[in-house]
TrEMBL record:
Residues 1-25 form the signal peptide. Belongs to the metallophosphoesterase superfamily. Purple acid phosphatase family. It comes from the Eukaryota. InterPro entries: Calcineurin-like_PHP, Fn3_PAP, Metallo-depent_PP-like, MPP_PAP, PAPs_C, PAPs_N, Purple_acid_Pase-like_N. Residues 321-536, 907-1122 form the Calcineurin-like phosphoesterase domain. Homodimer. It catalyses: a phosphate monoester + H2O = an alcohol + phosphate. This is Purple acid phosphatase.
Amino acid sequence: MRGLELVFFAILLVLATLQVAISHGEQPLSRIAVHNTRLRLSENADIRASPSILGLKGQNSEWVTLEYASPNPSNDDWIGVFSPADFSASTCNPDEGSKQSPPFLCTAPIKYQYANYSSPGYRKEGKGSLRLQLINQRSDFSFVLFSGGLANPKVVAVSNKVAFTNPNAPVYPRLAQGKMWNEMTVTWTSGYGINEAEPFVEWGRKDGDLMRSPAGTLTFNRNSMCGAPARTVGWRDPGFIHTSFLKELWPNSVGNDLVFSTYNGWRRRGYWRDREGEGGFKEGERYTYKLGHKLFNGTYVWSRVYQFRASPYPGQSSVQRVVIFGDMGKDEADGSNEYNNYQRGSLNTTKQLIEDLKNIDIVFHIGDICYANGYLSQWDQFTAQVEPIASTVPYMIASGNHERDWPGTGSFYGNSDSGGECGVLAETMFYVPAENRAKFWYSTDYGMFRFCIADTEHDWREGTEQYKFIEHCLASADRQKQPWLIFLAHRVLGYSSGTWYAEEGSFEEPMGRESLQKLWQKYKVDIAMYGHVHNYERTCPIYQNICTSKEKFYYKGILNGTIHVVAGGGGASLADFTPINTTWSYFKDHDYGFVKLTAFDHSNLLFEYKKSRDGKKRKAKISPIPKRQYNPVISQLETSSHGDHPLSRIAIHEATFALTPLAHVKASPSILGLTTGQNSEWVTIEYSTPSPSVDDWIGVFSPANFSASTCPSENPRVYPPLLCSAPIKFQYASYSSPQYKDTGKGSLKLQIINQRSDFSFALFTGGFLNPKLVAVSNKVVFSNPNAPAYPRLAQGKKWDEMTVTWTSGYGISEAEPFVEWGPKGGDPIRSPAGTLTFERSSMCGAPARTVGWRDPGYIHTSFLKELWPNTVYAYKLGHRLFNCTYVWSKEYQFKAPPYPGQDSVQRVVIFGDMGKGEVDGSSEYNDFQPGSLNTTKQLVQDLKNIDIVFHNGDICYANGYLSQWDQFTAQIEPIASSVPYMISSGNHERDWPGTGSFYGNMDSGGECGVLAQTMFYTPTENREKFWYSTDYGMFRFCIADTEHDWREGTEQYKFIEHCLASVDRQKQPWLIFLAHRVLGYSSDLSYAIEGSFEEPMGRESLQKLWQKYKVDIAMFGHVHNYERTCPIYQNVCTSKEKHHYKGTLNGTIHVAAGGAGASLSPFTTLQTAWSLYKDYDHGFVKLTAFDHSNLLFEYKKSRDGKVYDSFTISRDYRDILACTVDSCSSTTLAS
């Protein structure tokens, strides 16, 4: 456990480095260097305050006029307000000692203002005046004129004392819902302790009999604070905080005077409109109350009379109006403390709420309450500011970082945002119906609403105490009575486009929604609302990064997801948005404002966002029906643009017959593969036409007969020679003959591979859109078109088994396929091969079933078993014809895999999205896979230093043009015939609507997985389910299939967990997870626009498995670039190291390596915190395991084969066993 505690501490340190989501500026009082104060009193300087007695009419706020003069005025002179009035060294905390000569100050002023603020002539005349607003804060006040600015303050003059008539009077009541719906709590502040007076509330129905309810009393001392400034210069005696419980209230029934009116298009009961046109809802019966203290001498001290309306009972069908915002802070009506616009919108928000108070029933202030940040006087000033609101309607708060966070105090984040308050002030100054005030999560019911309020400053993740509370809160709501289920929290556990979150690469609080989103979805949370980022934003209804509705304003019926709202613009300095327009963000506002929810009945909810400066609104309506469901099969745009498939640009069905005897095409040689039985040869094409054009082109067709006579019956056409097969490749007639346009003559050299049939070459005019056949060449054919070709090695289901897959033109009715093999130089043996093929009807759609179709021949696989580790074997492909003759391939060789755990150097190459290229330049007009040949070349050149290759999806981008698979297997033959070539399934192999793929798009061009599953062997249990594991020496590879559902509870999820859990890390310390789409992290622009930095629904389920089983590296393709992250877990880097990792990683390194060949995809301009290295270029990854303790990772560019990024991991077996966060038994960071 000691090791685990150290890991927790390390994570806390990482979290402590995370800055708050936006810059709030400094707390104004923190700019004053109180401890540097010196005494510079001058007889010629003075300051006078009037009136000296305040509150003569019982008020708790009054304006004071200051007049002052100085013989040496300066622009940085300032006035400080001190309370208590005696602020010299005599009041210092004894613990601080007398460090400097008097009048050393140890208390900051409660507010300040520059001397020239309202007296522009002060700098010249040395005289000025100032009006400041004071509130009753349980002590007297004095005003001090300072010179020397804030950094070197010098006391020039001190005023007379000012005091309220009764400084101890009860002030600033704050209502809050109790633990029962029919209970209202009243909290207030006074200067009377329990040894001086008995606190109570006198209350009752308006104009009815009154009763008294006693109040409990709390306070705290300086030692309750956790650090500076709360414990030092920011300390101020908080007085006494009293709370009384008013019970068994009658609900706010509307009464008998009912009218009907129309509100925003909805007909509602109980709406009234006055003569001036102002709308409101009829108020129910109200209660009056006043705060009282019975002194022990028998006298009473009273507040003024307030009133409130009791809450509706759960499920009550009446109009209910809720205001929600975060991060309001406090402001000063006199302009003091505001030199840096600390909370510049706070007063406007307060003003709007007060003006609309008759139309507000309850308020939720979701964290970052007043930004006292350890200057305790600010809490009194905040409660005074909100008194008109909080004394009239319940004012519910949530805990924010500026209330709670302090290192070593149990807060989830180890920063110092609370200024040493560590939650004490928020937990004492306001009542919330929590079971334990130190655990600031709670639920409250208000009529048709259920609110579940989380505490983001304590761990909320699955398995924690708070997680269990959240689930119980959501699950226990009776949605028939309370249809409106609202989740509230301070930090953004859902979605935000705030710049800071975007740069973190999360669009959420790190570790935010990963655990909670399944609860929101399961229990059908309507709206999740947050503060923390100081702006406003609303998302679509969303689940796992996918919008579940395209509607933006008027929702009817099933939402299928949760609407997420950031409403942190209550007052604190605004936060910027990222320039990226995320797909889920429906409305953003860089301004101050708040949200208002109005439930008209059980079926209709109005959501409004109002600006604080004018109170105007933007609306969204929700009308639900009881049953909701979610369809996980989605259709979306691809992550990166690959360009069109070149062959898809040819309008084959538009081809017409335009042969002319004056045009010709000639191909030579006509017989290929005569010399050494090669399966690839160059052909020279010569051609001429009387009417040349720049868009004339040469198409290569195979079979050579490509007229309408070969069309399937399902595609009848009227005008021959309509074509129904695309060429297998093409090139412009002027490609290597620039003079063609003028002379009508040209030549071209094309590389042809053996594809089991003959070839012809056709000259077309009219471009690709209106092709006209001008001339057709002689036929060209390989000496044996059916010869076995293009062997592909793959690991078998056992480590000592190698499979060989190849293609031929021999079916099982013509010949018996086999492999003749054995140790190099030893006696060979023969292993039979199985044979597969498929028909046009096996394809799922066009073009694979139409113009892209080409007979695939026969695909054979043989299993070479009981291999000796690391032994070199020779093999050749054979077919025994039924006339007893043999057809052979050339001889190849491979090295058998090491046994699991074998301690030898093992080298693995991994990449995705390579595709194919053409060395003759054909078909490449749009740079479809511009880097493919370079990657292939680098691997062939370094083949002696490669043991196994993983091609991580998007294999050849045939996209339904089946001829391209032969061309791809020919391209990689030098590699795949020598080392195992393992593939995974990508969207361009599998995806097609209605065929069981997780994504409903058409990326496979109608192949729907058939080609990939047939052309390559993988050791899957079921080829249709393309997930598998394979062991290679000290490596365990777990290969996922992102085109099938991988989420928790699925068959694939169970496979992934079994694969990760079953590895013996003592033998195979290097655990690698592979998948095509990015289930981890990527800064690709498309993912940034999605607002996820991952495949939607990607890592949410899997990251706990990666963490639990200590996956070293998770590697992906799909995005056509290279990127490496820090070791990371739940959006938080678990190590600051970048290149040389030693010991426990504490997280998984994520790598996108999808730049092997296909057209590159750009990164977002945001610099995400977890991204260590990015490269917008073609390349691949190489892993080298030297032994059980040392691994080298290298990223190489395809254009030169040089290493551009690398890191090492050095560790012992005990480092793998060591516990890290969420890899051992459940616990919480706070523990």
